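Deliverable D5.2: sample structural annotation.
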Amino acid sequence: MTSSKVRSIATLGAILALLLVGCNTTYEMAVDAISNPSITDAESYIIIPRDPETDTNDLRYKETVDYIKTALSGKGLYEALNAEDADMVIEIDYGMEPPRQEYRVVEEPVFATIQHPDTMQQVAQTDPRTGRTIVYNVLVPGRRSKELIGYEERLKSVVVNEKYLELTAKENTITTSSDIPPQEIWSVQVRNFDENNDLREYIPIMAASVTDYVGEDTGSNHNIRLKEKDDVVQFIKKGIVQKPASKADLPTNEG
């Protein structure tokens, strides 16, 4: 095999390794969920932005809502056709806080240069005129290599971008006129704290984090890790969303 082919294969291998690393990025999420045990039969919903100034025609908002609907469908919840028919109103809020600088203790690898010993190698050379072969010894210098010998801790300054997604489900009081605020049914808050500032990349990951915690009570922050190829992330990105349904569309026990 020629040296150029060897270099080409090595380059291709390096590219594939980088692609695999990108596909296996680990996302760390902090999830905090609470629920109201007195309300357990709410299944249909409508989604509204928490901030009334939000442009609901914005493509980013629509994309986020689609991810959330997919996550809710994984819990057996469905979107109501009419706001009046919904069991609950789900307020959503998402975004990224202003970046802040933090100092974190990180472990960094420590490498040492290893000098391998010299070796003697026998070399045979044939004189083309006499046909006589002469064998002599050649000193081959030992190679140098870098080897991992441990890790050391150091304080590192990092810029943290806090990304968040919050869902709060409340009783639907659209058709009632009362001064009593609607009861909260459940709430899920997802947050990520790292250096990445690409909110769009993280929205489906945060939506995937919601899936197992709707209607649950974590008691406190629960840290989870997700990867790009995890089934729940792929489920969210495929956008398997149930179409809006009205109560008239639901199956009955008659007949």
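Annotation notes: Residues 2-11, 17-22, 246-255 have pLDDT under 50 and may be disordered. The CA atoms of residues 8 and 87 lie 61 Å apart.
The annotation will be released with the project's public dataset once the embargo ends.
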